[in-house]
Amino acid sequence: MRLSARNQLKGVVVDVVKGATTSHVRIDVGGTVVTASVTNEAVADLKLAKGRVATAVIKASDVLIAVEE
Q1: What are the Mop domain coordinates in residue numbering (predicted)?
Q2: Which of 47, 49, 53, 56 is deepest in the core (most CB within 10 A)?
């Protein structure tokens, strides 16, 4: 698969917490955990489960940065 999005973080699924319609999927990317909210249908279609290799693809029009003053 090839995507135009440049922010692709490959890692391993460490947790999938299903809700009524949406699941929270946690992916360990080199010691940092990224969490994505996806539909339960997507979890089933992608066969997302603990231990599966997956890539978090981040596509955003804005990235904000904050610092403590």
Answers
A1: 2-67
A2: 56
Name the token pair of 20: 């009524």
Mapping DSSP to helix (H, G, I), strand (E, B) and coil, where does residue 49 land?
Answer: coil
**Full set of structural domains in the chain with CATH:** 7-58 (2.40.50.100)
Q: How far is CA 3 from CA 7, 27, 31, 47, 55, in A?
A: 10, 19, 24, 20, 11
* pLDDT value at residue 17: 98
Asked if residues 56 and 36 have their Cβ atoms less than 8 Å apart, the reply is: yes
pTM score, whole prediction = 0.83
Single-letter amino acid, residue 8: Q
Which runs of consecutive H residues, i.e. helices, occur in the chain?
Answer: 40-46
Report the alpha-carbon distance of residue 10 to residue 13 in Å, rounded: 10
The number of residues in the chain equals 69
